[in-house]
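User: Quick sanity check before I run a bigger batch. Here is a single chain. Can you write out its predicted 3D structure?
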Amino acid sequence: MTELLPGIYAVGEQGEIWMRQLMTGELPPEDEIAKAEGFLTGPGSVEDLELFFYD
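Assistant: Done. Predicted structure follows.
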């Protein structure tokens, strides 16, 4: 659990940064979005989750 908590805070902090950027009309860099997605889902992508659950 102690290893998970810093990861959750890091994701939340990055989300807040992106929300401030979106409110000013600035889009986050695509490579940063891909890195965040990889961090949350591991190898593959969010679209791959459907294959895991509905195969």
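Residues 4-23 form the longest helix (20 residues).

User: Great, the batch can go ahead then.
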